[in-house]
Amino acid sequence: MAFPLISAGVFGCPSEIAIAVATQAIRDFLADNDMEIYLVVFDQKAFKISSSLFDDVQSYLDERYIEELLEVEYEGDDRDRRLKALRAPVYLGDEELAAGAAMPMEAASAADKARSLEDLLDEIDDTFSEVLLRLIDAKGKTAPEVYKRANVDRKHFSKIRNNPDYQPSKTTALAFAVALELNLDETRDFIGRAGYALSHSSKTDIIVEYFIERQEYDIFTINETLFAFEQPLLGC
Fold first, then answer.
1. pTM for the whole thing?
2. Where are the domains of the chain?
């Protein structure tokens, strides 16, 4: 089924008002029902958030976005070198390897022999899926409440729940952090279970951070803002 943006045509209702009414109706419906709903717009200009929110988020981005800060502060090769270093992948265990490089070879070898593979595997933290399910209980929420607030459908959540080793996308991990109303420290730990981190070289991360800092956890408002800044949406 497809519905037009009612009264936004020849009747002259401003599109931002009509969209706000439509999205609120969608929110109310999804609170009690499971359905995939898509809001389709002709182009970026057809969808607007309030100017005050846009300006506030833009100011927040300007203060934190690394690439734009480096553009102003550095020039030429020095800037490119720093950007390359920031984008370089960091692998789990790099810190330990760096520390081990300073140890005498005999000491490092003895330490390696003292720890078996089984010992190392026993130290693995709980997975993203396991922590997600535990946090749902700890926050006193229900599974449907959380996956709906995360903009994730029931089938997708079922895959997560039934697979302890499920690997989410970063946008899905962030969506659940928002749905669980985690603070920034909790969010960093939570998405870290899936191997992700919040980065100031990502506009998506900064925008999500903006809302979490203000304890504003409405996934629709966050996604509307991400869309306005041409960033990937949270959920699926």
1. 0.69
2. 1-48, 61-67+126-228
